[in-house]
Structure formats: C-alpha cells, structure tokens
Amino acid sequence: MEKIANLENIASPALLLFPDRIERNIVKMVEICAGDPGLLRPHVKTHKLAEVLEMQQRHGIHKVKCATIAEVEMAASAGVSQVLLAYQPVGPNIDRLLRLRDLFPKVKISALVDNSETLAAIANAVEKANQTPLKLFIDLDTGMQRTGIAPGEKACELAQEIAQNSHTEFAGVHAYDGHIHDADLEDRKASFAKSQELLLNFLADLEKTGLAIPTVVAGGSPTFALHAEFAQTQEHWNWECSPGTPLLWDAGYGTNHADLEFEKAAVLLSRVISKPGNNRICIDLGHKAVSAENPIERRVIFPALPDATFVSQSEEHLVLEITNADSWQVGDEILGYPWHVCPSLALHAEATLIEENRATQERWTIHARNRRITV
Hints:
Layout: E1 14-17, H1 19-32, H2 50-58, E2 63-66, H3 69-77, E3 82-85, H4 92-103, E4 108-113, H5 116-128, E5 134-139, H6 153-164, E6 168-175, H7 185-208, E7 215-218, H8 224-233, E8 239-241, H9 251-256, E9 266-277, E10 280-283, E11 300-301, E12 309-313, E13 318-321, E14 333-338, H10 341-345, E15 350-355, E16 358-365
Parallel strand pairs: 1-15, 2-3, 3-4, 4-5, 5-6, 6-7, 7-8
Antiparallel strand pairs: 1-9, 9-10, 9-14, 10-13, 11-14, 12-13, 15-16
C-alpha cells in the first residue's frame, strides 16, 4: 500500500476513499460490458454515495438497484432515471416507496415481489394512493435460498397475477446468484451454468404462457463478467448486470476473485492505542469501524502487518500479535483494507478523499447509511 500524506490531521478510526480508483472501476465495469453502459444496473448498497452515482451517470449508467428505501431516495435525488428496490417491500415500507414515487415523478421506480399476498398488499396501496401501476419484478430464487420464489408453475402464475392486476405492471425477472462465490474461475463458471440453466428454463416457460419479459436483472459481483458475456452474446432479452462491490472492491473479493481486476478504493485508517505486551498491539478498529460478520482473521487486511495474528476484537478495540511490536509506538497509523467493504462502509458517517496519495480536506457523507433520509 502506498504511503498517504496528511493523515496526522484525520481522527481514527476513519474511512478513506480514492475517487480516481472508483472512476477507473466504473470504466472497467463498462469495458467488461463491451462499452455498453446500458447493460449495467449496479447495486447502490456497496457505496451508498450520491457522488458515486453522479460518476456513474457521467459514464452513461442511469439505472441502479437498491436494498433500502433510503438508498432509493438517495438515488432518485441524485438524478438516476431508473431505480429498482431489489428488496420486497412489506409493512410501512410499501407506503414509503409509493411516497417516493410522488416525490420523484420523473424517476422510474420499481420493486420486487415473490408471493401473491405481498403483491395484493402492494396493489391495494397503489390503489389507495391513486397512483399509476407500480412496476414489479419477480424475485426468482436460482439457488441462494434467501429470498425469491422457486422457478416453476407458481412463479409463472405470480408473473401473470402482476400483469393482470390493474395496479401493477410486470417489469421482468430479478435473479440474484449471490450463492456463487467460487474462487477458482472454472468452478465459478460451473456454478454459474447450473444457476443460469434454472433461470433460462424459467424464462422460456414463462414466455410459453404468452407473457412478454421486458427485462432480466441478473447476477452479483463474482458472476458479473459471466453475465456480461452472456448479455453481449444473446439478443432475445433485455439483460442487465448488477454488480456492486466492484465499485469499491475489497480484500475479500480481491483475494478470491482476482480475475476481475478491480482496484481497492476504500481504506480504513486506525492507530495504535496501547501496547499490552507479549508482542501485542491494540488498535482503534473495533466492530463499529469494520464489519465483524466474518471470522476475526477475515475482517481487515493490513499490508504493513502481513504476519499479524488477530487475538481479539470488541466494539472499539482490535488486539493483534506481531513479531515486531517494538517497532510500533502508541499513536502510529496503520492502514487496512476491509475484507467486506459494503457493511464496513455503512459503519462510517463520512469518508475522507485521497488524491495523489494525500488526504484532502474534502469529505463525502455516506448519505444512505441511515434507514431513513426524509421518507
């Protein structure tokens, strides 16, 4: 990792972002899609930043998908023309989504659904709000078994229900293959082929019912290039790829999916706050500064401490055992790459921008880290 100047003025723990790397990652995504930004609907959940959305639009990317109502509002506020809530709205979130349609009438807002009961609740809310039909995608489960309806007769019937309801419009099929994360590319291709077979067979069955499929939104980050290749080689469907992590990249994907060749654009700044002995140092990078969803040794990678043993972590502390503890002093800066950047980014209210390996005075607010912006 290159040395970054001016860090002495930044309180730790802190999030640092490299705008030039983010922009190169956006360019790389478009290149993977053979220069066609229309094939992209990147996920907002990774960065939650209006500034990144503005970057994307400068490169011709005008569609995104989101995981929260706040992300939808941020994307609409940033001028994105097509915003998909890739998360089935339930309870009060249905009315919140419809409120955003009123606030941003020029933005094409859509959502997911995977069952008839939720479809009915959405349709009733649209009728009550006296709005035009809401575009809904079927959320299809192609192997992840987290959300979605399994391919088959019931899924075809649900698509017909959406199309026949006067308060909803069938927008197409959403298929997230987040269960595919094989490190070996050939293994990943084999897993992709199985998931893709389920999806393509379902699309064919659905078309046999006479229902046209306007759009297919498919894939995540590990399978992004595979979906992009498929999108370029077929002309039957309007196929959109939806990577998220490539915008910022991280140590996890950088380790397991090096074939994608994106740049890590997010770095965490921490400092030594204590030296408890036994070749140990304690730094200020706890659960509240870096995602703790993975085993302790896979939460952050420190290029300056390649042989560090992760001893313990709590809310504001991370204890490391290193062989050269004597060379580190309390107050020394340590930079690390988050293993999973998406949840790590959401732990920070703002990010300091790094330009030409110098910390600037400019900050970006992580706009959509909160569950609510205004709606």
